[in-house]
Amino acid sequence: xxxxxxxxxFVEKNPIKRIGYRLFGEIHIPxxxxxxxxxxxxxxxxxPANGKVRVLDAGCGRGDFTFYLAEKYPxxxxxxxxxxxxxxxDACTIKERLGLGNAEIINxxxxxxxxxxxxxxxxxxxVLEHIEDDDMVFNNLARALKKGGHLVLTTPSVPQRKHLWLxxxxxxxxxxxxxxxxxxxxxxxxxxxxxKLKPLGFVEIAPTYTFGPFGTLAFDIFFVIGDNRPNPLVxxxxxxFLMLLGxxxxxxxxxSGSGIMVSARKAAG
Length: 269
Prior knowledge:
Elements: H1 15-24, H2 29-45, E1 54-58, H3 64-72, E2 77-82, H4 85-98, E3 103-107, E4 119-125, H5 134-144, E5 145-156, H6 165-174, H7 190-197, E6 202-210, H8 213-224, H9 232-251, E7 259-266
Parallel strand pairs: 1-2, 1-4, 2-3, 4-5
Antiparallel strand pairs: 5-7, 6-7
């Protein structure tokens, strides 16, 4: 089975990154930490590995979750929906190269999602903070989910953990502004998720923090050494340490975090 993020090697133009994706899977450290938290939660849900499970990856990007789940669970049908044209085309290319008949990629807008009682599991990773009318998306996702189905979301959290002073230094050096991430809000709190999901009929709402002290340190170091465009030698030097921090973030309970994940079940009745 291929590593999650491996498919990006088919569309990555940078030859060094292409090798990285082939060898290690996802090499964007913050992205890898988010992916691992969500995958562990999906495992915890105990969905039937050989059942006819239908999954929606809402805001799938280049399809990391879509293709990983479709390959791991051949009896599942996994649909990824992505608005960005470039990411959508890349996802289509990856799907074709991987030859996954149980994966589907749609170019669409979550604000216009018109599905009803269709999916057993919906995941959406770091998408909602980019959408102004998030209430519409919450409603659309709730409607698309079957009764008794599961919803797993990740977003930045508020308030954020304290970051390294070097982050501010690098932001100033490169002229970076937090708004460059394209966020329309800073994130969500546990209370935000309860207030959004309870009126839509969700129960067993369980928010947990991600990017605690270890994950936030990994995020900060990754940003300081160059984020998406680090010096390859510097990145190779830090990579084992960053991977270790990611493992610690996954396995140490976080009392607070720069990210938040919520798992909730739609009421059966």
